[in-house]
């Protein structure tokens, strides 16, 4: 179990961002019931995995609501196996589409770069 400052150091995600993700329902920390002297929240290894997924998915262009859908599908116990498979399959299709779009942009940028180099 880690405190939020340890979580931030380990993941490279700022503390305010971690708090925002938690308030957004992407994960929850735990309070130690036997400790009454502080109000610390503790985070387990599953939260670190979720934060890694959030960071990677955000850098790939997914919105927080899309990321929440993925996390709920993978970790959620209230969603049936067929529903999980449907959500994850849909996300894979979206990723493939995004990859194709990025490849097209890459080709266009490479062309423009080549054109600029010819001008000299």
UniProtKB/TrEMBL annotation:
Keywords: Coiled coil, DNA-binding, Repressor, Transcription, Transcription regulation
Pfam families reported for this sequence: MerR_1 (PF13411)
Keyword presence, Lipoprotein: no
GO molecular function, one term: DNA binding
Classification via Gene3D superfamilies: 1.10.1660.10
PROSITE patterns: HTH_MERR_2
Positions of the HTH merR-type domain: 1-73
Signal peptide positions on this chain: none
Protein name per UniProt: MerR family Zn(II)-responsive transcriptional regulator of zntA
């Amino acid at each position: 179990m880690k405190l939020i400052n340890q979580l931030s150091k380990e993941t490279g995600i700022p503390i305010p961002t971690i708090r925002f993700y938690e308030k957004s329902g992407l994960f929850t920390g735990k309070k130690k019931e036997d400790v009454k002297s502080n109000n610390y929240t503790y985070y387990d290894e599953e939260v670190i995995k979720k934060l890694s997924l959030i960071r990677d998915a955000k850098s790939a262009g997914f919105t927080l609501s899309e990321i929440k859908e993925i996390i709920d599908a993978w970790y959620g116990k209230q969603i049936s196996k067929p529903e999980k498979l449907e959500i994850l399959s849909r996300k894979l299709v979206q990723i493939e589409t995004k990859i194709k779009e990025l490849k097209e942009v890459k080709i266009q940028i490479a062309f423009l770069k080549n054109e600029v180099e010819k001008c000299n």
